[in-house]
Amino acid sequence: xxxxxxxxxxxxxxxxxxxxxxxxxxxxxxxxxxxxxxxxxxxxxxxxxxxxxxxxxxxxxxxxxxxxxxxxxxxxxxxxxxxxxxxxxxxxxxxxxxxxxxxxxxxxxxxxxxxxxxxxxxxxxxxxxxxxxxxxxxxxxxxxxxxxxxxxxxxxxxxxxxxxxxxxxxxxxxxxxxxxxxxxxxxxxxxxxxxxxxxxxxxxxxxxxxxxxxxxxxxxxxxxxxxxxxxxxxxxxxxxxxxxxxxxxxxxxxxxxxxxxxxxxxxxxxxxxxxxxxxxxxxxxxxxxxxxxxxxxxxxxxxxxxxxxxxxxxxxxxxxxxxxxxxxxxxxxxxxxxxxxxxxxxxxxxxxxxxxxxxxxxxxxxxxxxxxxxxxxxxxxxxxxxxxxxxxxxxxxxxxxxxxxxxxxxxxxxxxxxxxxxxxxxxxxxxxxxxxxxxxxxxxxx
Length: 446
Ligand code: BGC
Fold this sequence. Notes:
The chain is of the alpha/beta class and 446 residues long. The chain has helices at 15-18, 31-34, 56-66, 77-80, 89-104, 120-123, 133-148, 161-171, 181-206, 229-239, 249-258, 271-277, 323-335, 361-379, 423-433; strands at residues 8-12, 70-74, 108-114, 154-159, 212-216, 284-287, 339-344, 384-390, 409-412, 418-421. The chain has a single domain, classed as Glycosidases (TIM Barrel), CATH 3.20.20.80. The chain has 15 helices and ten strands. The chain has an eight-stranded parallel sheet with strand order 5-4-3-2-1-8-7-6. Helix 7 runs parallel beside helix 9 (181-206). The site of beta-D-glucopyranose has 10 residues, from loops.
């Protein structure tokens, strides 16, 4: 088997990380505008970011030139609904135009409704701690589905609940910088799960074109340490291990995908809640960067390997291409849903060289290894429908500001956010053109 002919080779981004135009066209602030003072490296802010707010046409054309078949982007809730009960036509027009430009360039749009930029007006009502939020989110989903659902076929409700809850509500390192404790986390969890269910239903009800609906969890995966059935079974067990914390996969997946509450969720999720939460999904989205075996700290397990000189990205994340082989297999076996890789990529110390180009052999090497492993899974028959490289362009990396460059396009912030496609963008073009057929056959990385 090879990659399907219509395999969705693409790239991803998120509104707060790329858009800028934070107070333009009727948009009101999000928690990532209003609450970040003193929390971001070098005091960076997302006020301008990559200024995609003013570059929709050129960016879509550039994606077309690279040959991308899909682009996963998120909607800024406060651009569309800047205040309670108020829809902003200018905000809708911005996204509607972006969708048109993408389609004109042969790029399939994929929309994420929530990639962490909670409107301040919702936050003031209690944000994810408020019982009202799931209905507000469903109204927002309806508005977007009505406006764009005639042209957009792929929808993701949430990006990585694990991360925005873990970092934003437990550790306090991401906006809104809270530490709400166990009961608070349970409340936030229930509200997010209900919001997911209500939004998924609203998308199906109001999108004119039959939608494909999923979400994009931070999909953790342990990988086997040796080629034995026991090691493989142990990696799978750890991957889906029950967890009383929000970081566990199944904390979110059991209610969303299976309609089941974990034992430790039963006191705050009712059977009625589960009916709302458990909506049919068309695919299982996965954001994945590394095997969990190599976490620098935290969970200590038999699977964990400390390797001297383990190659790592600038984020400190272990380079473990084998995760793109095992993860789709494990998740497909468990949930029986087609897999969409919604994020994968690396941060690298990229510079514009004296010749004016951005040479990033590390990224080319990373993509080659990871995609070669993904191809092994596809060759074995695992139904993977697409791969969205993170990220389309260098952008605002949350608490790390602009210090991390994940893009296949270099963003020259000092010069009007000029876009400079990196060598990896050309490399990716070739992968897409040949539909991954020229990827090398590598031995499975252990
Ligand atoms: C997030 C992105 C982020 C990327 C790299 C993912 O956790 O969805 O917003 O930029 O990882 O850290």
